[in-house]
Amino acid sequence: MAPEATNHERIYRGIKSDYLDGRFVVGQRIDMTMIADRHRVSLTPVRDAMHRLAGEELMEAHMDGGFRILIPDRERLFHLYAWNAHHIQSAVNASTEDALVRNMAEFAENPLPPSDLLRVHHVAAFFHALVTATGNLEYAAAVERSNERLAYVRLAEMSYFRRPDRELTQLVNPVTNNVHLNLRRRLWSYHRRRIEHVTAISNRVTADSTDGNGAVF
C-alpha cells in the first residue's frame, strides 16, 4: 500500500475511533483543522475521511460548513430500532444453540462496565457476538454498522432510562434453557422498550448536545 493511502487510512481510523469513544458533541461542527494538527497532516486526508464516514451514515454536512455527527431523526431511529431487532433475532434463529451459548459465555464472566460509554460498547459487543454465532460474515458486518450508527443514541439512552444497568445485566445474562425462545424474548423486550420511547429518546439525544459533555475536535 502506498504511503499516502496508508496515511488516509490512519486518519480515517483515528476519527472513527474518536467517534466511537464519544468525543464529538451532537449538533456541533467538528474542527477539522484541529484534527489535522493533532495528526500532523493536511486537511485533505481529514476531509476525505469525513466524506467516507458520511458514506457510512456516521457524519453529515454542517450548515456552517464542515461536518457534524449524523443522528437519525425520529422516523429513521424508529426504523433502525425495528431493523436491528428483526436482524438480530433472525441471526439467533439461524444459529445453533451451542454456538449462541458459547458466544454469550464471555459476558457471563465479565461484570457490567461502570461507565455509560463502556456499557454502550458492551451492548454493541453482545449483539455482535450473537450474530457472529451464525458464522455468516454479512450478519456481522450489518450489525457492526448499526452499532456504529446507534452509538450516540445509546449514550442518550443511558441517561434517559432508569437503572439501565439492571436492564443490560438481564439482557446479557446467560440463557440455560430454551435458548432460542428466551433470547428472542429478551431481544424483543429490549428493542420494544426503545421503539415505544423513540420520540423521547430522539429528543434526549438532541438535548445532550447542550450539556457540554465531550470534546469538539
TrEMBL record:
Q: Which Pfam families match?
A: GntR
Keywords attached to this entry: DNA-binding, Transcription, Transcription regulation
Cite the HTH gntR-type domain residue spans from the record: 9-69
Keyword Transcription listed: yes
* GO molecular function annotation: DNA binding; DNA-binding transcription factor activity
Q: Can you name this protein? A: HTH gntR-type domain-containing protein
The organism of origin for this protein: Sphingobium yanoikuyae
